[in-house]
Structure of Enoyl-[acyl-carrier-protein] reductase [NADH]:
Amino acid sequence: MAYGLLKGKRGIITGALDEKSIAWKIALKAKEEGATFTLSNAPLAMRMGAIKQLAEQCEAEIIPADATSVEDIENLYTKSIDVLGGKIDFVLHSIGMSPNIRKNRPYGDMNYEWYQKSLDISALSFHKMMQTAEKLDALNEWASVVGLSYIAAQRTFAFYTDMADAKAMLESIARGYGYRFGKLKNVRVNTVSQSPTVTTAGSGIGGFDVFYEYAQLMSPLGNATADDCANYVITLFSDLTRMVTMQNLFHDGGFSSVGVSEDLAMKLMQAHQQEQQ
Ligand SMILES: NC(=O)c1ccc[n+]([C@@H]2O[C@H](COP(=O)([O-])OP(=O)(O)OC[C@H]3O[C@@H](n4cnc5c(N)ncnc54)[C@H](O)[C@@H]3O)[C@@H](O)[C@H]2O)c1
């Protein structure tokens, strides 16, 4: 059911790679709620082509941008303002990639060039998107900027390696720029810390199935899906959440507040009993 929450709003949505992407679901919801927006992804991802299908569905223009390039980001804002006919009301940063994770490098054997790439793509790009918006004065008063994070920013999750550091930085940037943008233009900046979700980036993490099942057993509401995440992010783009800023908002079915759940305890007890038989 649509509520017209984003009627008349103009946005930029990054990171929709294929229909599993969290950004893909957010784009579909934003369209449903009445927004107009541009879609952006790295030129390499563009070549895979799936984003064209989304663009048609959403009647959105695609503007390629490597999120590590300030020049590309400048072009993204300038073209978006041109195509959409005015300044921007919401920005989604849904970008993450770690070459170290892709190549299975353990935390004690990081390739530092790749480490810097992970930070640049997954965290610094968030700062670049906001600093560029500020310099170009590309955002409207009360605009909303959202980045996607993961609880490995607060607690150590084996195999999440340098992405955990990138997420901690991402959340810190949301506070730093949230303060600045709040004072400057009443713009709010938040991160949403999402449950493990089956996507290209998600499933690329070693042991993802275990993360997923563990979180499922621990969370009283179960894991939040990408569709659930889209609904939540839409509320953050809407005028209903104008005073929420500089927050890392857990969207995880309750996972972050549970020590141990009955479901997990039962599973461990069963395994223990089987071992003794
Ligand atoms: N899937 C999960 O379990 C999960 C959980 C919590 C948070 N997140 C976060 O959600 C966000 C979206 O990821 P997803 O799970 O939808 O996976 P996804 O693979 O669909 O999206 C990641 C996107 O980042 C883009 N990207 C990579 N390098 C880029 C660059 N240099 N410039 C521009 N774009 C680039 C990719 O093309 C892709 O579209 C990421 O920040 C991810 O860390 C994912």
The chain has eleven helices and six strands. The first strand starts at residue 10 and ends at 14.
